[in-house]
Specification:
Length: about 100
């Protein structure tokens, strides 16, 4: 079964902030490539999103908070935090892996 994937506003804004950083510290082309990779990896949540484990912040929520590690190449340095409701995956936040817990 394919799930619908919705990227909620906070997650989308976090991705956009990171893309701006990439553009400022690398190049616009590198930022666009990075952004395309990240959105592609998020789109993969449409197939079997349950295979990703619970985030370490999960116990602070009344719903299952899952995470998927994403990034460019072998460097999966970001976390996509999401929940599954019925047949929809809601991407709630996008964080650098070394960031503090999400609340």
């Amino acid at each position: 079964m394919a799930f619908k994937v919705i990227i909620e506003r906070p997650a989308h804004e976090s991705i956009e902030r990171n893309a701006i950083w990439w553009a400022q510290h690398h190049s616009i082309n590198a930022a666009l490539e990075w952004q395309e990779i990240i959105y592609g990896q998020i789109a993969e949540l449409a197939i079997m999103p349950e295979r990703y484990g619970l985030a370490h912040e999960n116990s602070a929520f009344q719903f299952d908070l899952r995470q998927k590690l994403v990034g460019k190449g072998k460097r999966l340095t970001y976390r996509v935090l999401f929940t599954i409701r019925d047949s929809t995956v809601h991407v709630l936040e996008f964080l650098a892996a070394e960031q503090d817990d999400w609340s």
